[in-house]
From TrEMBL:
Keyword Cell inner membrane annotated: no
Name used for this protein in its record: D-alanine--D-alanine ligase
Source organism: Cyclobacterium qasimii
Function of the molecule: Cell wall formation.
Annotated cofactor note: Binds 2 magnesium or manganese ions per subunit.
Length: 329
């Protein structure tokens, strides 16, 4: 059987490149070696190269995204994209693959770039049945008196987050006007667009959704119980800071309801590959509130998607095969 050549792209331009390398190591370990020949490709702002096991780095030819190894030019049948943040998750890199006609495992350029913008994404999913969106505002500049202005529209506590940031860096929760001013300063250091939204008091969940054989599959939700105020960078990546339960504690009716919502969100945003939607189940009302969607979710052994795949009795090897085969579907 002729093995398909897969470029496993990792790295990226942001602090999340560390997480990307961890995800890539897990993907590489579990990919079906009988079917695929895997080429690790590192993408950074100042370099893009193929990394061999012996540490040799071969630069990538950007004219056709090929590498020349042992005097032989290697062109790829497809790309397994595991770059969190820019340029893998924000549409830049996949736009380039589109121009070259190389298939890839993640969302297209339009969906990738829109979903990196939390405020735009919320506008798109707002009309979905049974899905609620917290009251929010999108800010384009920081100025004196901004906190007071916002408090005319929104009620405390308020979440403040950089609009395009991943991994919750620069995010904070403000319980007073003074804290809100500090939170805005912090977020504007990370991004020139900032989103503020009312805090929804509820249980937090995250759910994986992917397409295989042209059919949308919704994985079981993971419930996130954080000892921190919210699921920030430390809670995400430091063991023991948060507890994760997969499948999360939901009654049958809610499981079915969230499955329909997740499928609809995937369709409405025209997603491809595996994505992860974070949501709240509000305490008082039992309503589902959309938090955000990740189009290149982590794939480390302890990542939420990996836990959810294992919870349905599937191996990561089969899961990755389904994601790769879907590229050519």
């Amino acid at each position: 059987m002729n093995k398909k050549k897969i470029a496993l792209v990792m790295g990226g331009y942001t602090g999340e490149s560390v997480v990307s390398l961890k995800s890539a190591a897990v993907v590489a370990q579990h990919l079906d070696k009988e079917r695929y020949e895997v080429f690790p490709i590192h993408v950074y702002q100042d370099s893009c190269y193929h990394l061999e096991a012996n540490g040799n780095k071969t630069p990538v030819d950007f004219n056709d995204f090929s590498v020349t190894l042992v005097g032989k030019r290697v062109k790829f049948d497809g790309v397994f994209n595991i770059i969190h943040g820019s340029p893998g998750e924000d549409g830049k890199l996949v736009g380039y693959f589109d121009m070259l006609g190389i298939p890839y495992t993640t969302c297209d350029a339009l969906t990738s770039s829109i979903t990196m913008n939390k405020a735009y994404t919320k506008k798109i999913v707002e009309g979905i049945a049974d899905l609620h969106v917290a009251k929010s505002a999108q800010l384009f500049e920081n100025k004196a008196g901004l906190a007071e202005e916002l408090l005319d529209e929104l009620s405390l506590p308020i979440f403040v987050k950089p609009n395009n940031g991943g991994s919750s860096i620069g995010m904070s929760k403000a319980k007073s006007a003074e804290e809100l001013t500090m939170a805005l300063d912090l977020a504007f250091k990370e991004d020139d667009q900032v989103m503020v939204e009312e805090f929804v008091s509820g249980r937090e969940f995250s759910i994986g959704i992917y397409k295989s054989n042209g059919k949308i599959t919704v994985l079981p939700s993971t419930e996130i119980i954080s000892s921190k105020e919210f699921f920030d960078f430390e809670a995400k990546y430091k063991p023991g800071v948060s507890e994760e339960i997969t499948p999360g504690r939901l009654d049958e009716r809610d499981v079915e309801k969230v499955r329909k919502i997740a499928e609809k969100v995937y369709q409405t945003l025209n997603c491809k590959g595996a994505v992860r939607m974070d949501y709240f189940l509000e305490m008082q009302t039992g309503d589902f509130y959309f938090i955000e969607i990740n189009t290149v979710p982590g794939q480390t052994e302890t990542s939420l998607i990996s836990q959810q795949v294992k919870a349905v009795g599937m191996t990561l090897k089969d899961f990755y095969t389904e994601l790769i085969e879907e590229m050519w579907h």
